[in-house]
Design a protein that fits this description.
alpha+beta; 4-stranded mixed beta sheet
Length: 405
C-alpha cells in the first residue's frame, strides 16, 4: 500500500497556483505524473501524492517541473480569483474521490484518443500535401521535357529548312555559273567568228567573190580553217583505246586504299586496333553497354580502315538515332544500303534494319512521307513483320491527318 504524501506546500495568485511536492530521496526518473482539470497525481514508489483541486484549471497550459528533489506544479486557473483552499471537499468522501479519479482518467484517455485522431488526420493531410507536391513536380518535369522536345523538333525543322534553302541557293548559284560559262563560251565563239570573217575579208579585198573560183591547177580553193585537238589526262602511259579500263580502275582503287591505310597507321595502336573487324565488335560491346560515343568512335575508325563494312554504317546509324543525330543516321543508312548489293536473302535482315532506322529518323524530323517510303521498302523485304505494318499504318494516319488540316 503506498504512503500518501502530506507535507506538500502551495501558493497562489489570482491566476496561478504553485504546488511543491517533495520527492523524499526518490530519483526523478522514477516519478510518474498525471494531471487533469480537477485532479493531480504524482507517483514515486513507495510514495503517492493526490490532489483534488478546489476548482478547474487549464490542463493544457499547466506545467510540472521535476528537479532538486521536488515536483513543482504551475497550474492556471480557469476563473481568476483567490481559492480559500487547495483541495476540494471530496477528500473526506472516498466514494466521491473514486468517482473524481475515474472521471479524470476517462477524460485523460478520451483526450489522448482525440489527440491521436488529430495527429493521424494531420499526418494524412501532410501526406496528401506531399503527394500533391510530388505530382506537381512530376507534372512540371513532364512539361519541361515536352518543352525541350518541342524545342528540339523546332530546331531540327529549322535546320532542315535551312539545309533545303542552302541546297536551293547552291543549285541556283551553280545554274547561274553554268549559264555564265555558257554565255562566255558563246561570246568567245562570236568573237572568233567575227575575227575569222575579218581575216577572210582582208584576203578577198579587191577581188570578186566567187565560190567557184579555181586555182591554177583547176581545183576549187579551200577556206582557211583551224583544227583544235584536246587530250584526256590518264594515269597510265598507254592510249585509252589500248587499255583495259576495268582492270585499271581496280588497280587505282587498291592503290588509293593502300595509301589511306598507310596514312592511318599509328605506332601507338595495337594489332587489334588496326583490325576493322575487331573494332566493329568492340563498337557493338560499347553499344550494348550504353556508351554510344565510344561505339561511334570504334565504328568510324573501322570504316577508315575498311569503308566497305556495311554493318559499321548500319550500327553507327543506330547510335546516331539514339543520340537524336537524325541527319547523320539517314546518311549512314543510305551508305549501308548502297553497300548491301545485290539484294539477296542473306542480307535481307540488314536491309530491313537500315530502312526502319532511316524511316524512323525521317519521322522524327516530321518528314513523314519520306519515312513512310522507307517503311514500305522494309515491308517489301519482310511483308510478314507485324510491327513494321503497325508503324507504317500510324505514319499513314499522321500524313492523312496533316493533309486534312
Amino acid at each position: 500500500m503506498p504512503l500518501f504524501v502530506k507535507d506538500f506546500s502551495w501558493e497562489q495568485t489570482d491566476k496561478v497556483v504553485f504546488i511543491t511536492v517533495p520527492l523524499k530521496g526518490v530519483k526523478a526518473s522514477n516519478v510518474d505524473i498525471f494531471s487533469s482539470e480537477e485532479y493531480l497525481k504524482v507517483s514515486f514508489p513507495p510514495y503517492l501524492f493526490e490532489c483534488f483541486l478546489y476548482d478547474t484549471v487549464e490542463d493544457t497550459d499547466s506545467v510540472a517541473q521535476v528537479g532538486n528533489g521536488t515536483v513543482v506544479f504551475k497550474v492556471l486557473k480557469k476563473e481568476p480569483g483567490k481559492w480559500p483552499q487547495l483541495q476540494s471537499d471530496v477528500i473526506d468522501n472516498k466514494e466521491a474521490m473514486k468517482v473524481k479519479r475515474t472521471e479524470a482518467f476517462a477524460k485523460a484517455e478520451e483526450k489522448l484518443k482525440e489527440q491521436s485522431k488529430l495527429k493521424a488526420e494531420q499526418k494524412r493531410a501532410n501526406e496528401q500535401y506531399a503527394l500533391k507536391e510530388i505530382m506537381k513536380a512530376e507534372e512540371e518535369e513532364r512539361n519541361r521535357i515536352e518543352r525541350v522536345k518541342q524545342s528540339e523538333r523546332q530546331k531540327a525543322t529549322e535546320e532542315l529548312e535551312k539545309w533545303k534553302e542552302e541546297q536551293r541557293l547552291a543549285a541556283e548559284k551553280e545554274k547561274e555559273r553554268l549559264m555564265e560559262e555558257r554565255r562566255k563560251e558563246e561570246a568567245a565563239e562570236r568573237e572568233a567568228r567575227k575575227e575569222q570573217e575579218k581575216i577572210l575579208k582582208r584576203q578577198t579585198r579587191g577581188k570578186k567573190a566567187n565560190i567557184f573560183e579555181q586555182n591554177a591547177e583547176g581545183a576549187p580553193k579551200r577556206e582557211v580553217g583551224k583544227i583544235s585537238v584536246s587530250f584526256t589526262h590518264r594515269q597510265f602511259p598507254t592510249p585509252e583505246r589500248e587499255s583495259v579500263k576495268p582492270k585499271e580502275e581496280e588497280w587505282l582503287k587498291k592503290q588509293a586504299e593502300a595509301r589511306r591505310i598507310v596514312e592511318l597507321e599509328d605506332e601507338n595502336l595495337s594489332e587489334e586496333e588496326k583490325n576493322p573487324m575487331w573494332l566493329r565488335d568492340k563498337g557493338n560491346e560499347f553499344f550494348k553497354a550504353g556508351n554510344l560515343e565510344a561505339a561511334i568512335n570504334a565504328y568510324s575508325h573501322a570504316l577508315r580502315l575498311n569503308h566497305t563494312l556495311h554493318s559499321c554504317y548500319s550500327n553507327r546509324a543506330a547510335c546516331h538515332l539514339k543520340m537524336r543525330n537524325f541527319f547523320k543516321c539517314i546518311e549512314d543508312c543510305t551508305r549501308a544500303l548502297e553497300l548491301l548489293v545485290p539484294p539477296v536473302p542473306q542480307n535481307a535482315d540488314s536491309r530491313v534494319k537500315c530502312h526502319v532506322r532511316k524511316g524512323t529518323a525521317f519521322c522524327q524530323l516530321e518528314m513523314y512521307v519520306e519515312g513512310l517510303q522507307d517503311y514500305e521498302a522494309a515491308l517489301k523485304i519482310d511483308p510478314n513483320n507485324q510491327q513494321i505494318k503497325d508503324d507504317a499504318e500510324k505514319i499513314r494516319h499522321l500524313i492523312q491527318t496533316e493533309t486534312v488540316e
